[in-house]
Design brief:
The structure is a single chain. 44% of the residues are buried. The chain has nine helices and seven strands, in the order H-E-H-E-H-E-H-E-E-H-H-E-H-H-E-H. The protein has 214 residues and is α/β, with parallel strands linked by helices. It has a seven-stranded parallel sheet, with helices on both faces. The longest helix is centred in the first third of the chain and has 23 residues, at 7-29. Strand 2, helix 3 and strand 3 form a beta-alpha-beta unit. The chain is globular. It has one domain (7-213): Rossmann fold (3-Layer(aba) Sandwich).
Length: 214
């Protein structure tokens, strides 16, 4: 006879959410607005930060980042090149960041020198959904090159996010992606979600999004 401990998963989430609550309180105490940035590998998470940071500097807003990845420091090095404080957070075998990893990463940052903290999650459209990090906002970015059914295949990701970005809109005609369908699917799963379309490679669509998060 098999024995299944159904409390295990609940306990993991409960502990994570308790730490996430502490992270949120810590960010608020330092006046930091933390954004959990979600999306698949290659969707444009790092590119979004690269586009936003110079615009934030122009407005006197200081940015920082936590670069989450299973292994390596490719995204970390791209963010360091922006001249902002960054911590690399490797998860090892895990396909998502958790509140405990973010807690320790934040300890390596001087939060009094940061106004907006981008927490770039591991590139995955499933695993991160259940693990809150303590951010005040969750943002999910998808690209036209993932196919216009990508939203419909990952409903939980969009139900739990505040803002959606459809990136690489310039490539939609080349891959036959229906951007209207993607946006419609986002609103079907999350009617309150704010949706933006961007071409981050050429810097298009970034200003309306920046205005929204500020």
């Amino acid at each position: 006879m098999h024995h299944i401990d159904v409390r295990l998963e609940k306990d993991i989430f409960d502990v994570n959410n308790q730490i996430a609550g502490k992270n949120a309180a810590r960010f608020r105490a330092h006046g930091v607005r933390a954004i959990d940035l979600l999306g698949a590998i290659g969707s444009g998470k790092t590119a979004l930060i690269e586009r936003l940071v110079p615009l934030l500097k122009e407005r006197g807003v200081r940015a920082g980042a936590i670069a989450g990845d299973v292994y390596g420091d490719d995204d970390y090095r791209r963010l360091v090149a922006l001249g902002i404080p960054v911590v690399n957070a490797n998860t090892g075998k895990e396909c998502h960041l958790d509140a405990h990893l973010v807690e320790h990463a934040a300890e390596q940052l001087n939060l009094d020198e940061i106004d907006i903290l981008f927490i770039e999650n591991v590139g995955n459209m499933v695993c991160p959904t259940d693990f809150l990090l303590g951010a005040e906002m969750r943002l999910v970015i998808v690209s036209a090159t993932e196919g216009d059914d990508v939203v419909n295949k990952h409903p939980m990701m969009f139900r739990g996010c505040d803002i959606g970005i459809i990136n690489k809109q310039d490539l939609a005609p080349l891959v036959g992606a229906d951007l209207d369908r993607m946006e419609s699917d986002m609103h079907r799963y999350n009617p309150a979600m704010k949706v933006f379309r961007t071409d981050l490679r050429h810097g298009e669509g970034i200003t309306p999004f920046l205005d929204a998060i500020l």
